[in-house]
Amino acid sequence: MQILIEQLQQAFAWTPDWAVSLVVLALAFVIGVLIQRVVFRVLTRLTENRDLFWRSLVQRTYRPLRLAILTWTLSIGTTIAPLSDRATGLMRHALLLCFVILLGWMARTALHIWVTVYLRRFKLDAEDNLLARKHVTQSRIMERVAATGIIALTISAVLMSFPAVRQYGVSLLASAGVAGIVLGLALQPMLKNLFAGLQLAITQPIRIDDALIVEGEFGHVEEITSTYVVVKLWDWRRLVLPLNYFIEKPFQNWTREGAALIGTVMVYLDYSVPVATLREKTEEIVKAAPLWDGKVFNLAVTDLKDQVMEIRILVSATSAGKTFDLRCHVREKLMEYIQQSYPDALPRLRIRQAEKIGAREAVEA
Hints:
- By secondary structure, the chain is of the alpha+beta class.
- The chain has 3 domains: about 1-195, no CATH class; about 205-255, SH3 type barrels (Roll); about 260-345, Alpha-Beta Plaits (2-Layer Sandwich), CATH 3.30.70.
- It has 13 helices and 8 strands.
- The chain has helices at about 1-10, 15-45, 50-60, 60-80, 85-120, 130-160, 165-175, 180-185, 190-205, 245-250, 275-290, 320-340, 350-365; strands at about 210-215, 215-225, 230-235, 240, 250-255, 260-270, 295-305, 310-315.
- A 5-stranded antiparallel β-sheet has the order 4-3-2-1-5. Strands 6-8-7 form a 3-stranded antiparallel β-sheet, with helices on one face.
- Strand 1 (about 210-215) and strand 2 form a beta hairpin.
- The longest helix has about 35 residues, at about 85-120.
- The termini are far apart.
- About 20% of the residues are buried.
- InterPro entries: LSM_dom_sf, MscS_channel_2nd.
- Keywords: Membrane, Transmembrane, Transmembrane helix.
- One of its GO terms (cellular component) is membrane.
- GO terms for molecular function: mechanosensitive monoatomic ion channel activity.
- This is Mechanosensitive ion channel protein MscS.
């Protein structure tokens, strides 16, 4: 190395130091680009028959690899170039920052690739996707939390490389000083959502694709980020809620332990309708429906009101959407049957006696 430096100094003895330094750094940059291309091709060949994780890692780290090799070659160029002490210090500091950013970049990329490959074995579009929703939710939340931690550590390492910021960072880590307290209070909402995300990933009150009743709206969990949850409503609107909402406030989760649900159909009929016959016909309608999962059917008179009786029908289906459609199907077919077979059983206001009295008074008049 010393011989190479002396030869370069003799070759460029007639030129200013800044020109020599510029040429050396340019050569280091070009050599770094060439080395990166060769190394990338070699790694691509080596991982052709390996697992998907390694192939994806090589493809996704093309730019980080270039940054790593350029950092290495430029550091050698900085040593060779006849730079002043101040310029050398600035270059080494810049290369140190590139190295720190490189580590964070590669860690974030590797984390994303691992999560993506891991989640390939789970299908959210399956009929029974409870296990898939569980793993997808945990993995996505933990990935975002880990990514936030990686970014925070990278930024902290970059800032700590400056002497002034290093002292400030130490005071923050020690929880000392008014500035640290003010910053902690300012970051309280973000930290609150961060810990809420960890709690959601562990306890899982909600998962991706869960069917919810929240704020009086029905929808499915479409996305869970590190700070908020997106619920896709039945009419394609999006309801965005902070993570801590699902820790602090009550809501309905229709798919907490499974997607199957029991639906209720309420019918109000006259006392004259034969309940046993109605039960047989309703059971026939339900069994003929392709949406019914064959588990739950029940028809019972649940209340007697002053003019009608209340009949409750319970049916089950494999998902919330199918349960809703099955309820509508039962209502339509049952009303069609009652209209044809027992039209007098439909609720009506009985004023026959009043009509007779009115007719008699009209005749007498």
